[in-house]
Amino acid sequence: MHNKKTSIIEQFDSSNTIKSGQKAVVKYKIPNTDTSITLLGDEKDIANLKSLIDRSAKSELAREGMEIAGKGGYTLEYAHVEGAAGECTKDGKFITLSPHITENSSMYMFAHEIRHAGQFERGADEDFGIETVKSEIIKFRASEADAQTAAVGVCYELALKGDKFPILCMKRDDVKVVEAFEKAAAEKGGVESGKAQTEAFKGWYDNDKVKQVYEMIYEVEDMHKALREGTSGDRPYDKVLTGEQVVAKLCFDSKKGNYFTDNPKILESDKYVDIGKTTLTFFKNYFKEREDRTGKAPDKSIDELPVRGHYGNNKLAKTTAKRQEEAKKRVKDKQNSIVMMAKQRTR
Ligand SMILES: [Zn+2]
Q1: Crossing angle for the helix pair 175-185 and 165-173, to the nearest 10 degrees
Q2: pLDDT tens-digit series, residues 61-118
Q3: Euclidean distance between the first and final Cα of the chain, in Å?
Q4: What is the DSSP string of 30-76?
Q5: Which of 73, 104, 123 marks a domain boundary?
Q6: All residues with CB under 5 Å from ion ligand 1
Q7: I need a labelling partner for 147 at 20 to 30 A (CA). Which of 96, 166, 223, 321 fits?
Q8: pTM greater than 0.90
């Protein structure tokens, strides 16, 4: 995924000075730990990354996450990520942050991407086209919900230490997750019990737009690729994952083992697995075409996915022209958000 021009990168010790404009690889010790993490960039990038690490390290959760990423061999860098604030790639082990975003806004995204690195290190990665479509949806959504849960946990700890901007920025961008966390955290023992994290995790599924975008990039795009490359028949779609297995793998908590306090079975129905109308149509067409080409029966798990209300419920009468104009805009918005979210994919 990353096409690094390694020839222009020179190895430096942290004691060496970096010449202006030149890229360097630097090992940086995470404060209050014995672990270093690798930074890549020019003088300014390295200074900004150090600042981000130092500021994050005031949160115990963030320190833990950075240690796992550091030990796992992840490299942090700033690079333009088209329309997105950051990404974590398993191949090559890079955590990339957009240089266009202020440090305050980067803080929660950094914690989110660090968590993805931890997920990869704990082996919670994916087998596309091996699991049933429903199982894939359960797993991918849970990995995003868990990354946002980790991010709000870090921001909350920082806020308790007086650094309030990260949680305010996160709330601006993902109000459902942050409000769900804060509400449960206000109860006695809300954070210690895991309830605040569980509510934040569940809050992720209240954002239909985000779910729609992930359906397109995680599922539909992958199916397009399989048809294009003629590999759809190689995919058995027969491994079933339960909510319990997914929660056991993803909702890691170093103190409790696992933070999820609800019945993990909820991840197998309702809003947790609902899909858009267009997504369902695509799934059906894909499996029909796959059957025509290979004789293999469709994945029946798609019949278990509820379809969510599709775009708006404006009851006012509209002229045909107005409808067409709006439909065009929706397609454009969707394309824009796909481009934006595609960069946040984590595989
Ligand atoms: Zn993510």
Answers
A1: 130
A2: 999 999 999 999 999 999 987 767 889 999 899 999 999 899 999 999 999 999 999 9
A3: 9
A4: PTTSS-EEEEEE-HHHHHHHHHHHHHHTTSHHHHHHHHHHHHTT-EE
A5: 123
A6: 144, 147
A7: 223
A8: no
Total domain count, the chain: 2
> How many angstroms does the Cα of residue 343 sit away from the middle of ligand 1?
9
**Residue 81 belongs to domain with CATH number:** 3.30.2010
Q: How far is the CA of 214 from the centre of ligand 1 (A)?
A: 10
Owning domain of residue 170: 129-311+337-347
pLDDT in tens, 193-219: 999 999 999 999 999 999 998 899 889
Alpha carbons 211 and 323: distance in angstroms, whole number: 24
Q: How far is the CA of 109 from the centre of ligand 1 (A)?
A: 9
Closest CA to 141 of 264, 283, 44: 264
Per-residue pLDDT tens over the stretch 133-146: 999 999 999 999 99
Tell me the CA–centroid distance for residue 140 and ligand 1, in Å: 9
Spacing, Cα 86 to ligand 1 middle (Å): 8
User: If you measure from the C-alpha of residue 88 to the centroid of ligand 1, how many angstroms do you get, rounded to a whole number?
Assistant: 8
Report the separation in Å between the CA atom of 345 and the middle of ligand 1, taken as the mean of its atom positions: 6
